[in-house]
Amino acid sequence: MFKKAAILLVLFGMPFSLMAEDVVGKIQSISVKGKVIQYLNPKTNEVNVIKFTDKTKLESANSFTELTANTKFKATLDGNGVARKIKRILVKLPKEQVIDTEELYELIDDGQPLFIGDARPVSKYQTGHIPGAKATPANKLQQNLHWLPEDKATPLVFYCGGVTCPLSPKALRIAKANGYKNVKAYVEGYPVWKEEVYPSHVNKVWLAENLDIHHIILDVRTSPKSYIKGAVHLPAEKLLEMHEQWNQDKYPTNKRTIFDLRDKKAPIIIVAESDSSDDAIEAYEILTFWKFKNVSILNGGVLAWKQANLPVETGKIAEELNYVKKLAKGAIDEKDFVKAVTSGTATVIDVRSPDEVSHGHLKGAINIPLEELDKNLDRIPKTGLVILHCAGGARASLAYTTLINKGYTNVKFLDESFEAVVKDNGIKLI
């Protein structure tokens, strides 16, 4: 009895901030500057945030830059929601069941008989996949074995979202349990494939359903006589000239763009005569090098598009971009941001660091660095519009989630380059 009472005394006498809690989740976004992670709890489907510090112990990762979107992790938190330890939950498979990026590329390049299955959700597959891959979402594969080749000796390779993604191992196990003899998982997955600047494709049926202002159809042929509806023209040879000039000028790659486009996450679909033409590959490699995140090549190119009798136009092709960024949940339109800032009708919270703020900030803005936001809620009104901004949108997005989880309903965030927005709209900083 005495021992039990002593244990309870120790537990209840322990400072709350020292009590540990384990959480498991999938990263949605991370700010290394702000030391905050936004993650999805797979059990509750809730979005939450945790903080980390320079003292946070990392396991199965060399640096916080490896904690990218869709990374699965387990974290031990103190009572203040700060991670003492973060561990990436890596996929574990026998060595003989794993294929790496170079091996997979060589198999594809050699044209050997091979079935590549994309084990991610179909929505992920549609917006970009490894050339030749078929959509085989792991959660539906057991009920749809007809997706797989009839010949069970055919080599199969499944991939998904990276080294912490369990979907390709799951697809592998299903295939092996159903008699397929030669099955491997490309564990590094689509993120590494893109990182190594190997081509990504989209299919014509998906593109035909997305001919809208939220997608950029970039025709890189020299002199197209007819073209996909809504396409904009920028020849690959012109892109190469720009690239070589900027290399000579040592212009930063992350600032290189097309048509003054700020959104480096814009979905760009490269169109050429075929998906393997020099124009298509060159344009893809250049734009990827310029840090555009969602570049893909139209599978089959214009030839396949026309053969399928999909919509084309003739005459002069557009040479100016007509693109509107699709707003993320909670994001504010640039025009509305400018109107609110210039009229003073909103409380603006600048979540950048004090050093960043010292180089220029909005008049009247309140500076609360992201990592200190939850300790300064008394400075943020719960009535009237509150707009959060940082340098590029990542920290502002995390701040938005933090406030929503604290019960705020009146917040928006700027998901754009702050520097570009104020410059383009003539807003003076102090």
CATH architecture of the largest domain: 3-Layer(aba) Sandwich
**Main beta sheet:** 6 strands, mixed
Mean pLDDT, to the nearest integer, reads 93
Q: Give the termini distance in whole angstroms.
A: 66 Å
Structurally, the number of domains stands at 4
Estimate percent helicity.
25-40%
The class by helix and strand makeup works out as alpha/beta
Q: What fold name goes in the CATH topology slot of the largest domain?
A: Oxidized Rhodanese, domain 1
Cα-based radius of gyration, to the nearest Å: 25 Å
What order do the strands of the largest sheet run in, or round the barrel if closed?
3-2-1-5-6-4
Number of helices: 14
Which regions contain 5 or more consecutive residues with pLDDT less than 50?
1-17
Structure at a glance:
The protein is 28% helix and 20% strand. It has 430 residues and is α/β, with parallel strands linked by helices. 35% of the residues are buried.
Description of the molecule:
The chain is an alpha/beta fold and 430 residues long. The protein has 4 domains: 17-88, Beta Barrel (OB fold (Dihydrolipoamide Acetyltransferase, E2P)); 95-195, Rhodanese-like domain (Oxidized Rhodanese, domain 1); 201-314, 3-Layer(aba) Sandwich (Oxidized Rhodanese, domain 1); 334-424, 3-Layer(aba) Sandwich (Oxidized Rhodanese, domain 1), CATH 3.40.250.10. 28% of the residues lie in helices and 20% in strands. It has 14 helices and 21 strands. The strands form 5 sheets. The protein has a 6-stranded mixed β-sheet. It has a 5-stranded parallel β-sheet with strand order 11-16-15-12-14.
